[in-house]
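Model: Ready when you are.
Researcher: Fold this.
Model:
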Amino acid sequence: MAFSISRPLLRREARLQLSLGLCARHRPVLSCSSVASSSPFSSLVRSALTQNLKQSSSFLSVRFASSKLGADENLLKVLRSEIECIQEFKDPRELDVPEGFPFEILDNPGDNTITLKRDFAGENIQILVYMNPDVEEDEEEDDTDQENASKPSFSLHVTIDKGEEVPILEFACNLNSEELEIENMARKNPDDSDCQGTYEGPEFSDLDESLQKALHHYLKVRGIRDSLYSFLSEYMMKKDEREYQTWLKNIEEFVRK
């Protein structure tokens, strides 16, 4: 009896599942995209949004292009003004090398250094010269100290070479308006690229006074003396002016392209 009752129930459940499956198979499926595409209002909204995005993008492009153009034009104007100012106050006179100046001057455009070179009694002497950065003035200095501080000073790297298989002698010097100072010296092998750990002697100021004087005289007879200052200060100031003007023109050329 229980078996006969359960069979109709199973058949009815099976028919119900089949009916649900058929309904699901034939029911139309509506997606957001289909609704949106079939709605005239949604088409208008989508068209308006697209148009606004295009206008916003165009506006931003014009705005950024305008800002860039204005910044470039302003920079070019300032650069041109600076170049004209240099040309206006430039000293047109050529600097004459002093009579009896013993060194050949090697000056490569674009470098902030020059090299003085000479042969002396079988020695090859080279001096690398560069202008020291300006130092801020001390408010407590008197007028004389401030005047000297406003004058440029130069670092000199001196090498004295006596030829092959002979070590070279190097001096690090500072040349100012008052004197030539030897800061230190060292004897080095020209092939030694790594001189770390090599004993280079004591500080020059710690040497015996008579030895200091002898070393100053050693350089003096080779043309390395405090009288170089007058010519070097004029030469290096003119070089700095030339290099600065060239630098400004290079920047101007880049911005203008």
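Researcher: Now this one.
Model:
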Amino acid sequence: MGASSSTEQVPAEQRKAESLTASTGALPMLQKAFSVLADPQTNTIPLHSLQCCGRMSASTSFNGLFRILAMALAKAGLPEKLQFESDDDGGKMSGFLMPVDVLMLLWMCYIMSWNYKNLESFGGKDHGLPDLSHLVFSAVLSCAEAGVELNPWDCDILSMDVQLPAAKIHLWALKTVPTLTDCLSGYVHGKLEKSFTSENKLDPSCSAAHDLSPIVECNTSLLNQGRAWAISLTLEKHFKWRDYKSKLPQSSLHGKGLNRFWSNVEGYNGPMLILIAASSGDVHNDNGNVRRWILGALTHQAFENRDMFYGSSGSLYAISPVLNVFLPSGKEKNFVYSHLHPTGRVYDPHPKPVGLAFGGSIGNERISIDEDFAKVTVRHHAVDKTYQSGSLFPNQGFLPVEALILDVEVWGLGGRTTKEMQTSYKKREELFTDQRRKVDLKTFSNWEDSPEKMMMDMVSDPNRVQREDR
């Protein structure tokens, strides 16, 4: 990386270090940053500075993230709760965290997930800290010792006195939010980009590795900032979460029912996120027995009108009040079921159910929505071999639960191109529909002599005598 001539022999150790740096995919950006950070006399970067650029395992990355949290808590004057072994011993973590500490960690990562150039605009009424209680409750229920009772519908995180072992928190993060460490790497990339850009003029091509700042309708949408960011942490890296702009149907705005739902998602050939808000109690009776929760399903393909299950991949989500993700188990492929009323078909003595479903089998779906989008039925994971096991809402139990649907919302994750293709498809279908509605009389040879005219006259007055013109 220095200004050495082409004839000078490059040491093998330096070539190895540069190759390791190139494997991270950030070598061009680092070269620009090193031109600023290099020693002006030697115009080189010490090799020990390059040795930290290799890809780390997910476990090691999370250890680094927890170290930053521990340093932040220590600077704030709070007692030390985490201890770390030396790097030679693997850098293992011990100790515990409180629920409020987990909330601080998540908020810290949320702020870092913003593009570094946008941090100056962070805050205010539009960019405040989101509600991440569903993530904290997920960590508490997964990591708390046996015997700890938690009612997520009536619980204050700040007042919870529950110790969460560090080892369990580590495992929970690896399973539930595997891309959380990308927030730190994206922030570091932004800092490096900032170091070689002008203070007054920023390069528009420079952006953080993962711009996870969600822009959603916080007042009317089920997908608020906290839920959007939490779901983005569970997605694979090839998903560009900033492309989830396409809001398809929302039952509270566009009307309920499978037909209304279908008219909005038809022609969208890309991954979609379906959110279902339901209540297992009487929403009209204001008492403590009402339990509201939100489920989600991620499909990787377009919806099809079929009388059987289909799909190549997908995930189920318990979103609120506790977040959990259920990935494919690999045993079956009953990912999606979507069936409309058949048209133009003969009598079927055994008709297939009309509605929307995810997982399970026909008649024993894990999540089933009726034709009118009025009720949702949630069954125990024992009936489902497609998705991983787990409760879709707290205290689900073994028996099927039938709940009242409050709202259904769909977001398209295919990006702008997929949305434009759907718009073109809808315009083409509307054109065909208009053409079928119009009758061009000029296509007939003679309307007065046509059989249709004679039949219409007979129906209007069958006793009228038709006089033949000679």
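Researcher: Key takeaway?
Model: DSSP finds 13 helices and 13 strands in the chain.
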